[in-house]
Amino acid sequence: MNKKKKIGILTGGGDCPGINAVIRAVARKAMLEDDAEIIGIEDGYEGLVNNRYRKLQLRELSGILTVGGTILGTSKKANPYRYAIKNGDKLVFKDLSRRALDNIDDMELDCLVVIGGDGTLGIAYKLFKDGVPVIGVPKTIDNDIMGTEITFGFDSAVWIATEGIDRLHTTAQSHHRIMIVEVMGHNAGWIALHSGIAGGGDIILIPEIPYQIDAIVAKVRERHSRGKKFSIIVVAEGAKPKGGDIVIQRIVKESSDPIRLGGIGFVLGQQIENMTGIETRTVVMGHLQRGGSPTPYDRVLATELGTKAVDMIQAQEFGSMVGVQKCKLVKVSLKEVSKGSRKIPLDHPLIKSARSLDTSFGDKK
Ligand code: F6P
Predict the structure, then answer these.
(1) Which domains are delineated in the chain?
(2) Best of 152, 183, 186, 288 to mutate for ligand 1, by most ligand atoms within 8 A of CB?
(3) If DSSP codes are grouped into helix, strand and coil, which group holds residue 283?
(4) Whole-model pTM?
């Protein structure tokens, strides 16, 4: 009798809307078409190193399409190749990849589906090079993964950020204030650019275009002189002044990517209020952007990516990620994905389009 195919699924990095929709798509299709057994590894690479997993049943997959977060749990710290262990007050890093590889063998997995962002998929590439048949699925609100023009979770985050900007317009207008909305995005400005345009931000600040405080103040003053007594500024957490630096909120030492951004909105708010004399308030959208139910777009995209991942398992196209290029699902090598993160090109049509509507990027007076 043929042995049942066993597929492991792991979700790593920050949670985001749509992960459960991918888990559901992968598991249901593989169960229905191949009668496969699905092994859910708990808390990302943490569970892989410490051998925590469970067999997923069809009933556990029911009703999760619309649910945010991940039913498997996740970790932003665990990396089998550089695993942090506390030794008294000290942290020591150990290569526990052999243990992770042995666990994969013990689970008798035929392949591993890794749902994650650039960090998680970079580790997946290492596992692949160490002999694990891996398929990647691009997950992040930041939309910054190489080899794909869109990631699931991004649309939901943009929707939430835009909702925030819309609501802050009311106070900005009524109180004649400057409202600064800080959005996530790590070192890329995709969320700020899209939500800034969708929310009608007057100034959009992104990491890819370092700002000049004088240019921001000039824009606010120019609006005032035209009778516009309020301004909305959308700033990406990774934005920085020309010749200056990012604002760091905390360092997570155990993490392979330890810097957590945040706080640029408050720094800017103080400077702008001092320079203009206009009351300036800052709102940080933070983790609200990662929470709750995925948008219909993300549910559809997550379902497409998940089912395509199973096609790729069936075709044994391991060492690859499902990507979207020119609106089509494509196979992208994990080697390409692990090269870094995808920033907004300076000639991006959306930047041009926003500029043509007099939206400032804080770089010109
Ligand atoms: O990658 C997703 C993301 O939300 C980034 O936009 C943000 O910089 C980071 O994760 C925040 O991480 P944490 O949840 O550890 O604070």
Answers:
(1) 6-152+292-337 (3.40.50.450), 154-290+345-356 (3.40.50.460)
(2) 186
(3) strand
(4) 0.97
